[in-house]
Specification:
By secondary structure, the protein is of the alpha/beta class. About 40% of the residues lie in helices and about 20% in strands. Strands 2, 3, 4, 5, 10, 14, 15 and 16 form an eight-stranded mixed sheet that branches. The chain is globular, with a radius of gyration of 21 Å. Bound molecules: S-adenosyl-L-homocysteine. S-adenosyl-L-homocysteine (SAH) binds near residues 95, 129 and 168.
C-alpha cells in the first residue's frame, strides 16, 4: 500500500478517534500514540506480531544473537560488581518476542549463580507478545513474572534492560509560533473526515519547561515524553533504594534540540504517522539528555550515552563474532559477520542507536562507559 492508498482507507481505530475528536476536540499526540500502540483491542502491539523480518520492523536482538550475548555478559559483570547478590530483579522493559532475554540467559550460563539469583520480570502490555515471551523462555532456567506497570515489580537490587522501549513511549510536541509555544495536537482535516495535525489555542503551562522563546525560531518543534520522564524517575528511585543499573538502548539524540521525530513504520518502510493508527508502528527519538538530567537530579549516576557501535566494540564484539564463526561453514560465518556489522556499523545501527546507563551512586562505572 502506498501512502496515497493508506489515505483512502480508515482503520477502525481512526474512526473511533474521529468520533471522539468531533465530540471533545483535538487530542494530544501522546494520547494518539497511546491508543495507536496500546489500545486493548485495536492497538498496534495487540495485533499480529509486529517485530522481526516478517513484521514491520526489526531490532538488534532479532538481527544478531551477539547483541544479547554481549549484554548478558555485561549483566553478569554488573551483578558481580554489586557483590553477586543472592537474589535480585532482572527486569526487561518491552521485551518484544523475548529474543534478547533468551540470548542474555544463554550467555549468562557462564556463571550459573546469576540465573539462580535472578527473578526475571518482563514489563509488557501486549497479551500476544507475552505469549511469545512465555513460549520462548519456557526452556530457560528462570521463571519470569510479568508486570503491566513498573510499580508492580517488587523491590530488590535491580538490573534493568530496555532495548527499543523508550522510543515507543508517547511524546507531546510543541510548535514555536509567532505567539510563542503551542501544543501540536491531533484534530480533523477541514472536511472532518480524516485525522490531521492542528495547534492548541492557548500556551502550554510553565511546568512543561519548554525552551526559552529567544532560543528558538518560528516553526521549531520541541518534543517531550512525560511518560518517559516518569519511567526514568521511577527507575532512579528503585536504583537509589536497592542498588543496580538500568541499561537503556535506543535511537535518539544526546542533546536536547528541535525537530519532529515522530515516525511511523509499516512493512519496513516509513508511513504517514496519522494514517492507519493500529496498523503501523509509531516511535520518536529518545531525548537522552532529558533522561540523564532526571537521573542526576534524583542523585543517581548517568553514564554515556555512547553510540551502540562503540559500546558493542568495547564489550568485545569482534572477538565474540570470530569465536562464533570458528568451525562454521562459509555461509553461516558470513551471516554472523553480516548481522554483527548491521548492529554495529556507523552507517547501519551503530551510530544512531545510543546506550546509556543509569546507576545507583555507589557502584563503579560499568563496562563500556569508561572514559
Ligand atoms: N525490546 C524488544 C522489542 C522492542 S518493541 C526488541 O529489542 O526486540 C517495544 C516493546 O515494548 C514491545 O514488546 C511492546 O509491546 C512493549 N511496550 C510498548 N509500550 C509499552 C508500555 N507502555 N508498557 C509495557 N510495554 C510496552
Amino acid at each position: 500500500m502506498s501512502s496515497g492508498a493508506a489515505a483512502a482507507e480508515t482503520t477502525p481505530l481512526e474512526e473511533r478517534l474521529i468520533d471522539l475528536i468531533k465530540l471533545k476536540g483535538p487530542i494530544t499526540i501522546a494520547d494518539y500514540m497511546s491508543d495507536a500502540l496500546g489500545h486493548p483491542h485495536e492497538g498496534y502491539y495487540m495485533r499480529a506480531s509486529p517485530i522481526g523480518a516478517d513484521g514491520d520492523f526489526t531490532t538488534a536482538p532479532e538481527i544478531s544473537q551477539v547483541f544479547g550475548e554481549l549484554i548478558g555478559l555485561w549483566l553478569v559483570e554488573a551483578w558481580q560488581a554489586m557483590g553477586s547478590p543472592e537474589s535480585f530483579n532482572l527486569v526487561e522493559l518491552g521485551p518484544g518476542r523475548g529474543v534478547l532475554m533468551e540470548d542474555i540467559l544463554r550467555a549468562a550460563r557462564l556463571r550459573p549463580g546469576f540465573a539462580r539469583a535472578a527473578q526475571v520480570w518482563l514489563l509488557e502490555t501486549s497479551g500476544r507478545l507475552r505469549l511469545e515471551q512465555q513460549k520462548r523462555l519456557k526452556t530457560t532456567e528462570v521463571k519470569p513474572l510479568w508486570a503491566d506497570d513498573y510499580a508492580d515489580i517488587s523491590p530488590a537490587p535491580t538490573l534493568i534492560i530496555a532495548n527499543e522501549f523508550f522510543d515507543c513511549l508517547p511524546i507531546r510536541q510543541f510548535e514555536r509560533t509567532k505567539s510563542g509555544w503551542r501544543e501540536r495536537l491531533v484534530g480533523l482535516d477541514k472536511d472532518g473526515a480524516r485525522l490531521a495535525f492542528t495547534l492548541g489555542a492557548t500556551p502550554p503551562p510553565p511546568e512543561f519547561n519548554l525552551p526559552d522563546i529567544s532560543e528558538s525560531d518560528e516553526g521549531d518543534i520541541f518534543e517531550a515524553s512525560f511518560v518517559a520522564h516518569q519511567f526514568a524517575a521511577d527507575i532512579c528511585e528503585t536504583l537509589n533504594q536497592h542498588g543496580g543499573h538500568a541499561l537503556i538502548i535506543d535511537y535518539g539524540h544526546m542533546e536536547r534540540g528541535f525537530g519532529d521525530t515522530l515516525q511511523a513504520v509499516k512493512d519496513h518502510a516509513y508511513w504517514p504517522p496519522l494514517a492507519s493508527p493500529g496498523y503501523a508502528d509509531l516511535t520518536a527519538h529518545v531525548d537522552f539528555e532529558a533522561l540523564a538530567r532526571i537521573a542526576l537530579d534524583a542523585g543517581a549516576n548517568a553514564h554515556g550515552p555512547v553510540t551502540q557501535g562503540r559500546f558493542l566494540d568495547r564489550l568485545g564484539l569482534t572477538l565474540r563474532v570470530e569465536a562464533l564463526c570458528k568451525g562454521q561453514d562459509e555461509k553461516t560465518a558470513k551471516d554472523i559477520r553480516t548481522g554483527a556489522a548491521r548492529i554495529a556499523a556507523p552507517n547501519a545501527m551503530g551510530e544512531i542507536f545510543k546506550v546509556m546507563c543509569i546507576s545507583s551512586p555507589s557502584l563503579p562505572t560499568p563496562a563500556g562507559f569508561e572514559s
